[in-house]
Amino acid sequence: MGQLDGKVVLITGAGGMKGIGRACALKLASQGADIVISDFRREPKDLPPQEIKAQWRSIDSVAEEVEALGRRCLKIWCDLTVSEQIEDMARRAAEHYGHIDILVNNARAIIGRDRVGITELREEVWQRFLRVNTTAVFLNTKFVGRVMIEKRNGGRIINIASDASKRAKPKTAAYATSKFAVIGLTQASALDLAPHRITVNAVCPGSVNTDRLNYWEADQAQAKGVSLEEFRASIVADAAKSVPLGRIAEPEDVAKLVAFLASDEAAFITGQAYNVNGGTLFH
User: What are the catalytic residues?
Assistant: First the structure.
């Protein structure tokens, strides 16, 4: 018997081949949960080279992996900048399985175009980061929270925040602001939903080896005349030097904490924000 037998999990941003969403889907499915995975359809220019080479098919490929574990998997394409699509996703998931027990707000805006000083940051970039990283988390919590309240079985909501939720760095105004807001939303939601036995917590990864596209990295690689894979490998190696445990996180490191927070073992934990960073940040 898995500790999540009979549970239904909705995970956003779950289509990446090396993403946290995929790692969470496989980890929670391995513990007995049935899965709903969502992502938005990316243009080829927005795909990591590794996914193109592997002919990766986003949530279609992840769904096949979940089903190979013997669990059911519902795929929903969803643009998180459109509130109607978010509401429809919650409705479809609830109608398909009859309930939603766990929500993992994992999706984030593609970073890179925000990597400029505050005086050079374009308003449309700022707004997109807030819509995807913050407003979508609010809306998912709102609509899935309603489903959980209606079913009266409690629930778990887990927001993937960031170490940038606790400490900003230069040229990250849009990203850091959007992720700081997730912590406030986590705390307020935890208080609002506590009477319904729904816990809300955040996971704050440091650098994670996800291979998700980063516009800044792509531009730097082109300027240096090297492949994106080569440039990213150098970034990962450099980042590892500043981590006390000697490496940056893998998606599975984050998924393990998500699985704990989704379990009955974490029933008395709510409103918290936990770091997964190898010792680079302690609060």
Answer: 175, 179
